[in-house]
Every structure is written in C-alpha cells, then in structure tokens.
Amino acid sequence: MFGLSFSELFIIGIVALIVLGPERLPKVARTAGHLMGRVQRYVSDVKSDIQREMNIQELSQIKEDVKGAANQIRQNFDKAVADIKDPLLNLKNEIGDTSQQLKQAITQDLPDLSQLRPTKEGESPESPLLEDTSTKQQVSESLKPTDTNKAEDLLDQQALALKQEAISERHTTKEGNV
C-alpha cells in the first residue's frame, strides 16, 4: 500500500517492539489494524462515489443524446407527415373546386323545373320553359302526381352522369400531362 517491502516492515515491527514493549504492542497493532481498515474503507468509498458520479455523468450524457435523437426522429416524422398531407389537401381542394364547377355547369345546362307543378291527368302544365308541345307532353306525363319523384331521380341521375364524365375527363387530361 505504501510501497514498503517485507524487510522494511520487519524493521518497523522490531523498533515498535522495543519502543512499546511486549505488553502494549498487541493492543497498538490491533488499533493500527482497525485504523488501516477504516482508511481503506474510506478510500474505497471515495473511489466508488467518484465512479458513481462518472457513471451518472455518462448516463446523463447518453440520456441527452437519446433525447436529441428522439427529437430529430420526431421532426423527421412530422416533416414526412406534412409532406404527405400537403399534396392530399391540395388534391382535396382541387376536387372541391371541380365539384363546384360541375355544379355550376349542371345548373346552367339544366332548365329550371321549380315552376312546374304536377297536374291532373289530361292537363298540361303551364310554364314559360315549355314552348314545344312535345316537351309539354313529355313533362306532363313525367309529372303525374304519382311520378313526381321519378323526375327528380332522373335529374339526379343526369347530374351524377355529368359529374362522373367531367371527373373522368379531368383524370385523363392529368394523366396526359404527367
């Protein structure tokens, strides 16, 4: 421990025997042994505390590194989600714009049938929209009291067909541009 060899310890022991005497030497040796044990325990405790502090510092450094990596991963993930969301939002807006345009086109192309009323059988409806007698006859036949829903269904089907046609045309033009 202190760099003393066996011969040096032997000489120290003989001097202690002469100075202290044979009666007090065992008691002093026992006390010196206890003191040396305490010193060794104290030194080992200090070493373990220092080692523990170094481990805590290493762990806190590792913890900070892991937090930094986790934040980086989260940022990359959020960026990837945003990169996916932006085109989808643009596509949604384009579809909404297209549907608005289709609604406008459909409402402009179809005559206003709100003024037509179902008539009794044999009567023809009076409307400024119906100038042609064949059209009057077709409308009066289609607007019988029991068949009013059929006219609405027919208009809905025509509107749906126009929408689908416009969407397919837009889709084919996009494919042609890509």
Automatic annotation (TrEMBL):
Keywords, ordered alphabetically: Cell inner membrane, Cell membrane, Coiled coil, Membrane, Protein transport, Translocation, Transmembrane, Transmembrane helix, Transport
Of the GO CC terms on this record, one is: TAT protein transport complex
Q: Does the keyword Transmembrane helix apply?
A: yes
Pfam families cross-referenced by the UniProt entry = TatA_B_E (PF02416)
What GO molecular function annotation could you give as one example from this UniProt entry? protein transmembrane transporter activity
- Keyword Isomerase listed? The answer is no
**Location of region: Disordered:** 110-157
Task: Report the HAMAP family cross-referenced here.
Answer: TatB
What's this chain's function? Part of the twin-arginine translocation (Tat) system that transports large folded proteins containing a characteristic twin-arginine motif in their signal peptide across membranes. Together with TatC, TatB is part of a receptor directly interacting with Tat signal peptides. TatB may form an oligomeric binding site that transiently accommodates folded Tat precursor proteins before their translocation.
| Subunit | The Tat system comprises two distinct complexes: a TatABC complex, containing multiple copies of TatA, TatB and TatC subunits, and a separate TatA complex, containing only TatA subunits. Substrates initially bind to the TatABC complex, which probably triggers association of the separate TatA complex to form the active translocon.
This protein is called what?
Sec-independent protein translocase protein TatB
